[in-house]
């Protein structure tokens, strides 16, 4: 990995574990919360796509001579914690999580990939191009809101919680994996004290907030403050 | 479906739901019981293969003008019950279940497919040809038994319970879906009273028992009485 920028293995590792665990959590939600077998199959389909991404990333790590298990290990706790804090209580929450969660993750990866080496960037782009599969969730949520508009309030709060918990875990990760954080803030210091780091983080957060707002609108939800 | 033998839609329906639910249960076991991320990925890989089979079967039902959800519906309760009765308590039990469960299911489908129309038979063969993926479970179980031979007793009992519960659910299904049962016993009556039905069922059970014995040996376990 001497020809890869610092943080590149971390990027592949966090992305790989995120995809593996997204697969398992989506399958769990499909089994527990889908109101019909058709819906169960639709969320399962999304889950299986995430597994496919995991395989690409794991194989890339192996091709770089890295142990995938070791590369993923530092990210198990923060990602598991995010899922534990955002366990959906019903089918609509599961759909919003599938769409918003995939979206937030995509935003982080896209930022990080900008700074990565070309091969990794290409792979991350490939993984992200597939994320439009979660669009089925948008249709279902919009249809449900058309029938029960009063669900909009609680789902908007739910989506805000998904982002809040994601930023909280990202903050925790940035402290322990400075090189990964460096990839995200594109060249600034990231200890939160230097001006360059602050500007980088500020930019990153406003990009994430902007993208999240678009997703909320797509779902028919008010983004909120 | 006027050109399909009675029971053909049932066969595709039970196989489709079995694969969908196997996918979800294997994913659940991978998330809950795998001792390492590598093991979690290996069982996930098996789960994803099951989902691929589900898709083939669902699409075949749709191509026959059948509603996949309706075709699967009669089989939800018996298959869910089987899984509820056979929830693995640890990783070794999960591996034995992945291998033995996939094997038992395969035996049933193989018998049923003999009598099905050529297109369905071809599809079932295609699905079954893939089942060798569960062989990874054999390697892990054998390695574990080489280290701790005393686990053999409880795992043999566990495997026997998997079969016992499967036969019990199959019996329940045969009573409610006589046309599917007919496919299984190859031309005999299946009400359990006529001689032809009894002979057919007797043959089926001895084939299942024989195949199960081979799988137990492969795992390094004593088949038991």
Helix content of chain A: over 70%
Instruction: Give the strand content of chain A.
Output: under 5%
Q: Runs of chain A with pLDDT <50, length 5+?
A: 187-193
DSSP strand tally of chain A: 0
Number of domains of chain A: 1
Biggest β-sheet description of chain A: none
Largest interface: A-B, 29 and 29 residues
Descriptive notes:
Chains A, B: This is Rubrerythrin. Chains A, B: Pfam families: MiaE_2 (PF13794). 2 copies of one chain form a homodimer. Chain A has 225 residues and is mainly alpha-helical. Chain A has a single domain, classed as Up-down Bundle (Ferritin), CATH 1.20.1260. Chain A has 10 helices and no strands. In chain A, α1 packs parallel to α4, α2 packs antiparallel against α6 and α8 crosses α9. The longest helix of chain A has 27 residues. The N and C termini of chain A lie far apart (42 Å). In chain A, 48% of the residues are buried. The interface between A and B is medium-sized, with 29 and 29 residues.
Features:
mainly alpha; 10 helices; Ferritin; homodimer; 225 residues
What's the short version?
With 225 residues, chain A is an all-alpha fold. The first copy, chain A, has helices spanning 8-33, 37-63, 68-72, 76-85, 91-114, 118-129, 135-147, 151-176, 178-185, 195-219.
Could you give the topology of this structure?
2 copies of one chain form a homodimer.
Chain A: H1 8-33, H2 37-63, H3 68-72, H4 76-85, H5 91-114, H6 118-129, H7 135-147, H8 151-176, H9 178-185, H10 195-219
């Amino acid at each position: 990995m001497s020809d890869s920028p610092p943080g590149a293995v971390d990027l592949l590792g966090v992305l790989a574990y995120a995809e593996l665990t997204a697969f398992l959590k989506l399958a769990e939600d499909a089994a527990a919360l889908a109101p019909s077998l058709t819906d169960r199959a639709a969320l399962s389909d999304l889950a299986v796509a995430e597994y496919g991404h995991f395989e690409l990333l794991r194989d890339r790590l192996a091709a770089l001579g890295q142990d995938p298990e070791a590369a993923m290990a530092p990210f198990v706790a923060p990602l598991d914690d995010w899922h534990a804090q955002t366990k959906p209580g019903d089918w609509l929450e599961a759909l919003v999580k599938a769409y918003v969660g995939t979206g937030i993750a995509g935003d982080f990866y896209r930022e990080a990939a900008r700074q990565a080496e070309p091969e990794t960037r290409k792979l991350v782009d490939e993984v992200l191009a597939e994320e439009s599969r979660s669009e089925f969730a948008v249709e279902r949520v919009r249809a449900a809101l058309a029938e029960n508009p009063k669900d909009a309030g609680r789902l908007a709060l739910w989506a805000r919680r998904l982002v809040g918990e994601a930023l909280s875990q990202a903050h925790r990760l940035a402290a322990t994996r400075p090189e990964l954080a460096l990839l995200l803030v594109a060249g600034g210091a990231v200890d939160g004290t230097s001006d360059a780091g602050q500007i980088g983080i500020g930019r990153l957060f406003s990009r994430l907030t902007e993208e999240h707002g678009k997703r909320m609108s797509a779902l028919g939800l008010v983004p909120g403050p």
